[in-house]
Amino acid sequence: MGFRMAIDHLQTxxxxxxxLQHLHSFAQTMPWYLLLLIPVTGGLVVGLxxxxxxxxxRVCSVADVIEGAALNDGRVGLRAGIASAIASMITLSSxxxxxxxxxxxxxxxxxxxxxxxxxxxxxxTARDLLGCAVAAAVSASFNAxxxxxxxxxxxxxRHFAIAxxxxxxxxxxxxxxxxxxxxxxxxxxxxxxxxxLDFYEELPAYLLLGLVCGLxxxxxxxxxxWAESVADRLQQRTGLPAALRPAVAGLLLGVLAxxxxxxxxxxxxxxxxxxxxxLLLFEALGFAFVKAAAVSITIGGRMGGGVFSPSLMMGALxxxxxxxxxxxxxxxxxxxxxxxxxxxxxAVAAAVLGAPISTTLIVFELTGDWQTGIAVTTSVxxxxxxxxxxxxxxxxxxxxxRRGIHLAxxxxxxxxxxxxxxxxxxxxxxxxCAAESACRDxxxxxxxxxxxxxxxxxxxxxxxxxxxYVPVILRRPDKDGEAEILGALFQxxxxxAYNRALAATAAEEHS
Length: 511
Hints:
Layout: H1 2-15, H2 23-27, H3 32-53, H4 62-71, H5 78-93, H6 101-119, H7 123-142, H8 145-157, H9 162-183, H10 203-238, H11 245-259, H12 268-275, H13 281-300, H14 308-329, H15 337-353, H16 356-367, H17 373-390, H18 395-402, H19 411-414, H20 421-424, E1 426-427, H21 436-444, E2 449-450, H22 455-465, E3 469-476, E4 482-490, H23 491-509
Helix pairs in contact: 1-5, 3-5, 3-11, 4-18, 5-6, 6-7, 7-8, 7-9, 8-9, 8-16, 10-13, 10-14, 10-15, 10-17, 11-13, 12-14, 13-14, 14-15, 15-16, 15-17
């Protein structure tokens, strides 16, 4: 809640309006140079913070929390995490076109990591505590206790263990209480009237909407990754300092905001307009294209923020466009175009997050409309099924895959990357280790692994060379890189360690 209120206060200072729910409308009356100057200044400050306090100059996000849950005993970095939260707060306050939920999730993970360090929690306990923190943060951000608890299990922990359920739900309820003490029991979006699916003949349209939304979600995700790759190449070719990259992104955003002020910030005003049918066909279509560009610039330019709110806006606009066309072509069997907007909002967001269950519930809890379940779940199911085939399951898992972290395929793929050769090898002094002379001959042939190498790198050597073991070495810089033989990694030992890790993961998931 403090993060959310800090954004509100800073945004009020920068844009000079207390009515943040209608910021975009107010921005239309502002001088063009202020719309340009504010995001540039914000980007400059963000660049200085990230390049001073992070290793790679990028904002930590939900992907880092998923990585922490899977590979790092439920922990994320403290220094980079705090810097990322401040950078995202500045980005969202100064007009960055992204969402606040991703930074909130990571900030919760930072707090959970610190508490786990204090209490000396490791393994399943630390991961459960991380899940509790995320559930509370999402619930406090959305006033959505059911969706918050399921989001933590579906997206972060990526399993639904019974033993994990109770503490996570309690944490989600606590987060919701905090939200309601501050804002009351108020839905984020208010629909004009109850949306009802009047005709079952209309269901095929929602199936088609799901496929359309799945493609839109893929286009949005790939646009962000393409923008990031292009920005990387341009930065290398031009020699642009990394600290200035967010400022350049802010400049591009400012240029967009002059003509399309709806790209500023989270975008809930435009989302609400789509859900209430206040936009015309070409207006909604144009807004969707410009919003996709703005989100790609913001995240590709390393300004910070998350993708959930932008995906809600993209989904609502997509659904509204589809609904306008559907009701015009088949008026005799079509219901409300705003119901299509609601279903589209859930469908695009679910595909981006790779979380059909929690996203569906978030849509219901955000709008307070539970009578649209058939339409929303129909579209969500098709969108996630299609999008998950065209990317690595979700936006976050694709981010990790691009960094060489293979979590999308499940524990059978990533557990090998958690085990080090030095931890599994037989030491040279062990009587059951290989002979030193044989190890030296293999090292001379290049058949060896560093002690810091993972089993993911070591296991292919056994199949490729047809050997039962490989020497484990340590390069000594003080001796011109001479290889010191520490021991030998046997294939049978590596397989035993892998099986133990798989068994432990299965036990946690079925606890």
